[in-house]
Automatic annotation (TrEMBL):
This is MutT/NUDIX family protein. Its EC number is 3.6.1.13. Residues 40-173 form the Nudix hydrolase domain. GO terms for molecular function: ADP-ribose diphosphatase activity. It is an enzyme of class 3 (hydrolase). Its cofactor is Mg(2+). It comes from the Bacteria. Pfam families: NUDIX. The keyword Hydrolase applies. Keywords: Hydrolase. Transmembrane segments: none annotated.
Length: 186
């Protein structure tokens, strides 16, 4: 069976600093006709599961305008211009900017898409260990107001259950952490 939708035309609706919005007219597979697809094209992002020597996760609390509420998340951010292809360095940059830490050990865990129904945002999730405080860390983005939290796995799972953690990448990272600790990993 053919699944591919062939693009007949694309109309760019908006082009911003973070993403582009377009509407595609597509030919549906297997002679099913045509349809419109509203799409968001994103430059990509990185996220970090940062685990302290005390076996706690570092989380950042910040306001998220899209959901009109405060969110508790792992450190993350969009790829800056020129960082495509060097996502590990981007993840280290974001970790330092948002938390003031750097990692002696950094490995990629996942490479996934956040919302494939309408967006091509690709997030690379890293595990950061052997954390050390940076003496003069890079400044966080001027438009960010962040508070740091450290939680045990049990506390993080409770925060998921209570809805305090509602961010998908953070939930995925915490589930990975649980697999690592439970011996079902690797």
């Amino acid at each position: 069976m053919d699944f591919e939708e062939k693009t007949l035309s694309r109309q760019e609706i908006f082009k911003g600093h973070i993403f582009t919005v377009a509407v595609d007219e597509v030919e549906l597979p297997n002679g099913l006709g045509q349809a419109k697809r509203e799409l968001i094209f994103h430059n990509g992002a990185v996220a970090t599961l940062a685990i302290t020597a005390e076996n706690k996760i570092i989380l950042v609390k910040q306001y998220r305008k899209a959901i009109e509420q405060v969110s508790l998340e792992i450190p993350a951010g969009k790829l800056e211009v020129g960082e495509a292809g060097n996502e590990k360095a981007a993840a280290l940059r974001e970790l330092e900017e948002e938390t003031g830490y750097t990692a002696g050990k950094m490995e990629q865990l996942y490479d996934f898409y956040s919302a494939i129904g309408f967006c091509n945002e690709r997030i690379r999730l890293y595990l950061a260990q052997e954390l050390t405080k940076v003496e003069n860390p890079r400044e966080k983005d001027a438009d960010e107001t962040i508070e740091l939290f450290e939680m045990t796995l049990a506390e993080a799972k409770e925060a998921i259950v209570s809805g305090e953690i509602c961010d998908a990448k953070t939930i995925m990272a915490i589930q990975h952490w649980e697999l690592m600790l439970g011996g079902s990993y690797g």
